[in-house]
Amino acid sequence: MNAAKSFSSRLAGWLPRIVVAPSLLIVIVTVYLFILWTGVISFTSSKFVPVYDFAGLEQFIRLWATPRWHTAVANLFIFSALFLMLSTGIGLLMAILLDQNIRAEGFLRAVYLYPMALSFIVTGTAWKWIMNPGLGIQKVVNELGWTSFTFDWITDPKMAIYTVVIAGVWQSSGFAMAIFLAGLRGIDNSVIKAAQIEGASLPLIYRQIIIPMLRPAMLSVIVLLSYIAIKSFDLVLALTNGGPGSATELPSTFMFSATFRRNQMGVGAASAIMMLMTVAAIIIPYLYSELRERNNG
Amino acid sequence: MSKFLASLVAATMLVPAAARAEGTIEVLHHWVSQSEVDALNVIRKDLETKGFQWKDSAVGGMSGANAQQALRSRLTSGDPPGAMQFLGWEGPQWAEQGVVRDLNDLAKEGGWREALPPQLLTFVTSGDAFIAAPINMHRQNWVWANKKIFDEAGIAPPKTWEELIAAGKKLKEKGVTPVAMGDEPWQIGIIFDALLSDLNGPEFYKKAAIDLDPAALNSPEMTKVFDTLREVRGLVDDNFVGRDWAVATGMVINGEAAMQFMGDWAKGEFLAKGLKPNADFYCFATPAKVTSFQYVIDSFGMFTVKDETVQKAQVALAETIMDPKVQKGFNLIKGSIPARTDVSVDDFDECAKLGFNERAEAIKAGSMLGAMTHGFAAKPEFASVFGDVAAQFFVGKMSSEDAVKMLVEGIDNAR
Known about the structure:
Chain A: The chain crosses the membrane at residues 20-43, 76-98, 110-130, 159-184, 205-230, 265-288. With 297 residues, chain A is mostly helical. Chain A has a single domain (67-296), classed as MetI-like fold, CATH 1.10.3720. Chain A has helices spanning 2-42, 58-64, 67-98, 105-113, 120-130, 137-143, 160-185, 189-197, 202-213, 215-230, 233-239, 251-260, 265-296. The longest helix of chain B has 16 residues, at 34-49.
């Protein structure tokens, strides 16, 4: 009796661990083990297939001497910064406008949210045509009579990365809007009423009261959009395929082509490690501050 | 029970010939378009007459990079396919890893070495081993032109690049887009490869694109290649971004553009519209004093496997591929010409016949060259540097001198 009881209580103690174990094992193998393996490869002279020698920092030096990599890193910062700012800003603005008790709100909300239902491949292909000077916006405006109008960013290596931003923002700002709208609905009307009685103007109410109260929604939007920004590989592939030239290369497209198409597995691994370091540089301080806050609380 | 299960499986798979098949061979390749699949059926049918089944394992996309990825994981898990389509250096590189079966006995018996152009052997042999059976040969440096546009403008197929560019300028004044193309690096690379040899001779091509000789890379001849490439850019319309090669071919067919630089896979687009070579459209090599034949081949390599029935099927497949009759049937559909040089030219169209002739001449003149853009010259880590620089130069405003500098530095960095 006693033994059985202790067995069942022991089982109860172990059960959560047993249940979690398989998924933990899978995560350890498929994520952390392969991160480790990539790290190992980045210090070897691997080209076509992995070889296990020690080449020191050779691949990292080679990586940073590659102009395409510099383009890729610069593009990632340009794209992420603009994408985050514009999607958040436009999303917030649309949410506030939709929140003014307008007619057909449900319909408009669906219209703005709908791009999110598309895959980046579809968005990229559609915008490739829309922004092609001979097919899309430029042609339409020219034919309407404004013949000197040009919009040929997609053909210009200096401007092409901004076309990726446009397509990305188009797809994702509706999503930001939906989250902000949910946040706005959660704000108690009496707060606004009270401020109005105090004589605050509407812009002031939004700036000083409502937007600060949206902080949790803002955090979710930024975290989720950051994910989207980092995995925008497919958008670039469909929209510009890294071109013109290699003007819209991103670290992810660079890594893929180095590893699988250019016989430079070592360089590809080095670039993956650089990406990991960049993400870690952002995530670790964030985790640190979150955990410390929790401990203090 | 197991018998029942087996018959159930056979019934659901609906393979009528399976009963008498002596073995099955799985072939990993990246051919998925209609003409490619039709051409493969020629091989498949011949293999079936020998009693073997072809198990299709097509992984399309990314010019074969996806299929390469599939192969890597298959090899790592110890389950390689029986055979695999090789492009460029893939065959020799896998052979160096010791995973490819040596077909030397078959090659000796069948006289393969004698039947193939000697320049090809780099890509189908590794040391003494014969590692892949080549089925076809495409030529990369063709010009496809709309004959009506040429005739109306009073232009004949040009004999030099100066003539070609002058003709292009004339067409541009008449409001026709002289050159149809897209901005994909490989489409630009086709022109770059042609210019390397056409302007400076096949020896220069070998020094620059194969030996990566620093003196050749950093030379006035190389600057001249970029200068001419810049002139070609002036003949392309501004909407070339993201344009597929087949769309560009369509522009030539419809008379929106005068010509396209493209491998002979473009020919199928003309023939499919019922157009006739030299009557409706021109096909001619990129112009040069010494006309070059820049080849692209597809070959099939066999992996070392333990299963004896698969081993037998590998022999049968290799023999099928090297059969002149099969090579003819395959290439009539695929639009290329046989890798073997001893296949009769009857039944082929006029463009292919021109290809046969110019190949024979090129072998003699030493201008039979592997096409770099498709991986048949420098190894991919170097060829991709050429591709990057040529593409960045073409779409931007870089000077020829800067392009040469970037090329030299890029190649050194990849060494």
